[in-house]
Design a protein that fits this description.
The complex is a heterodimer of chains A (309) and B (449). By secondary structure, chain A is mainly α. Chain A has helices spanning 7-41, 58-65, 67-98, 105-113, 120-130, 137-144, 159-168, 172-183, 187-195, 200-227, 232-240, 242-245, 260-270, 274-305, and strands spanning 44-45, 53-54. A two-stranded antiparallel ribbon of chain A has the order 1-2. In chain A, helix 2 packs across helix 14 (274-305). The radius of gyration of chain A is 24 Å and the shape is globular. The two termini of chain A are 31 Å apart. The radius of gyration of chain B is 25 Å and the shape is globular. Classes of the chains: A mainly alpha (309), B alpha+beta (449). At the A-B interface, helix 1, helix 5, helix 12 and helix 13 of A face helix 1, helix 4, helix 10, helix 13 and helix 19 of B.
Amino acid sequence: MKVKKTKQERKDFLYGLLFASPWILGFLAFSVYPLLSSLYYSFTEFNAVTAPKWVGLENFIDVFRDPLVWKSLRNTLFMAFVSTPINLMVALLLACIVVRNFKGRGFVRTAFFLPSVIPMVAATMVWIWMFDPTYGYINNVLALFGISGPSWLLDARFTKWALVLMGTWNTGTTMLVCMAALQSVPQSYYESAEIDGAGVVKRFFYVTLPCVAHVIVYQAILSIINAFQYFQQVYIIVTANAGVKGGSAAGGPENSILMYPLYIFHNAFTYLKMGKASAMAWLLFLVVAVLTVVMTKVTKKVTEDAGGE
Amino acid sequence: MKKKLVGTLFVLGMAALSATGCSSSESTATSAAPAAGENSAAEEANTTEAPASGEDVQVVTFWYNNTGDEAKVYEEAIAAYNASQSKYKVEGLSVTDAQKLIVSMSSNEAPDVIKTGNQSIIQYTKNGLLQSVQEYVDAESFDTSVFSEQSVEANRIDGDLYALPLDAYTIQMFYNKTILEEIGYTEPPETMEEMYEMAVKATKLDANGNIDVLGYPLFPYASARQELIYGFGGRWWDENSKPTPLNEGVLDSLTMNVAYRNEFGGKALDGFIGTANTNRYTEQDMFFQGKQLFRLDGSWLPTMMENFGSDVDWGITLIPGTEEHPEYRGSARFETDSIAIPIMAKCKEGAWDFTKWLCSGDGAKIIDLGTGNLPALKSLYDDPDVMAVPGFPEFIEALELGKGVQYPQMSDYDEYMNLVNATLDSIYAGNEEPEAALQALYEQSKDFE
């Protein structure tokens, strides 16, 4: 049965709308309008300045036929499904360390978290120096163990692994979330497990991990979605390496770190193919949307299994 | 009733405040910074003060893509122009982010004049973003022969001039005289074959197999992709701007590059090149430190070496040709920094007036001397101040040979170069033989326009 709103309720609603109007207008102007515009542009030939020309599905066909689109997608998937688990493991390990009681715990926590507050641009520039094949810290440390380090950012076999290494440095936020989850595990579980004769390893795999699984899965989802927006670090690296690569900074050696968002950027602002870039962006949106739905269902299942809601 | 009125006024006030807050960023030239790169704030510190607006004075906005000391040189030129006449006032802004320029053009907020490389001039023109300056040239019978022929051609697209050249840019070969003498030579090479022989003799490895002295000029790779190929008569495109990766000279050059890589190891070379790139144009630059026998670079290198106090005894010579084709000697890329007027400029007359002054008046000399770039104006070729700059006489002599290789008039140029670079990476990494890789490149790029 439809309940008729009173005059006061209608008035309250209007006031509410008025108060929210700055945000609503901003949302319409800066989110909805660009979103719909890009959908329209994806069916046009458009260089961002002159009038768009309708070309139907041509941009989408071009996207599917372009080998670099697939290469950039593979690179992005690598970051999503290789870098993410490694980062989570590192974050969980760090959380396990800092959650314990020991002298200087506050300092260690701060030290592990600090990289997360450093601007990505500055951090990436520092990493470029650290990856220097001759004078970089990474290769100097490897040399202490008798290993001759590679040219991290010049050898296509190592460029993505360099990004993975960079990612592990920046896991402070995830570490904090894991730490909070670890602290919420009831101490009685550990005591019971200990009485049953479980050692440290067994307590971790049979008590800790199941209790924090839902948090890890949630973090995994966020990280995977973020990986599909991986841009800043590679943009800085390829720009810094422009001198090496000949001034045409596109995607690093053999386009080995050409991430999907970077290729969208190049199409939009370097090649002035805004239509193709829009088509690529919409395909990315669809992929991320499907992934989000799947992973949300997975989280729900894991949370239910863990006894949550 | 009173309560209702107060409530309504409050809500409207909130909305107005919010709207006012959102629009404040566009109020002055210095605060307009949409979607720029990370360092835009620093770049934009290099701006001229907005002039006091007089009744008849028209403001001309000018964006140049230089920063730091070079930006100061542009500001100096702008101040000189503003002092030279009273009809227009130029406001300068340092914008190195090409994305910002595109965004400004798309939102009808483009500057009246831009300074950019001639490759961008070609790309922007192909996309309909620039005003042809041909009509101004014709209307005023402006004499373009004051510029070198190459520099005018660099800015002519489909028969019309779209920008005036501000300065010129080419590459020649620097060499370390001390290393050359150590390996038993008194004169630099004139052919690629001689250069290779010297390079192999000069290359030194340390105890760990790392390259200590690089003989062959594989750094910067940009030169390996261009000048080393031009010296063999190779070209990545033909006179119709169609891709030509199967060109014989390209293959010959790559074969020599690969031979050198195989001789000393790709890993050792990448190690040297990686470090060289990190330290390029710093005090630790490999050439400045005496760790490169040959270096293919621009006219600014001697001034930089002087500023960094490098004690390397250097010389300049033309890019070598080949034994079979000595006439290829001296072939190198030719580019210009150019001044153009966007199609949506609001003050085109003022823009043209400033463009003329900057490129052909006193402005060109201020810019050339201040930035270390070569002149496009022929009258500056024998100017005593210009000739006093270290390296300029040799570079001007090279320019006068007229062997510059121009950019193609290809709208897909950037995409093509991306594929070329990826192909070279693959060849150098030993993943593909040059012939097969170039054939694959041809297949990928044959439809580029």
